[in-house]
């Protein structure tokens, strides 16, 4: 009986939050979002601008903590914005181990690049080897967006003072036919060329990346203001 009551509470909280999200719908923005995320069905997208969604997440965490927690327990969700809200609610988690448990509950349900990429928990900035090991686990997943998420973690948190050359190898060795994994690999190497050029360039010189990832990495690096202009001509010469 207790478990049934808790499940009903979760469903009720999700229903309330879902209805409030629907009230924030912006139809023109929905049309824009549908074009931006072709992997999502149109009926699964409400169309809510991210600043509004972030403000709503902040309000839930501050004023309706229990409701938020019940919403997080109620997976799977129905709408794209519900998953985005889910990820944003986790941003406020201050316990690293709890955050990892929460992320691993929702990551298998993530089915698009936008939801995957908005996640940037503040607590990750304080983590070192434990987060790196977890990123390796995510990269080894058979789920497209879990792999993308793991590469994103390495890009955001391990290309500065925590960088080690072996991390380039980890991303270079990812072999995937998935477009959104390849695009994250390219984004990673373009960023690495801006932050760790002397180490990253050797990966491209040896053509360890497949043709798409190599060429896209170079394209993104050339377009970046963070890569020195003097290096861009040489980068062009490394295209397949």
From TrEMBL:
The record ties this protein, via InterPro entries, to: ARM-type_fold, DNA_alkylation
Q: Fetch the Gene3D superfamilies from UniProt.
A: 1.25.10.90
Superkingdom of this protein's organism: Bacteria
Q: What is this protein called?
A: DNA alkylation repair protein
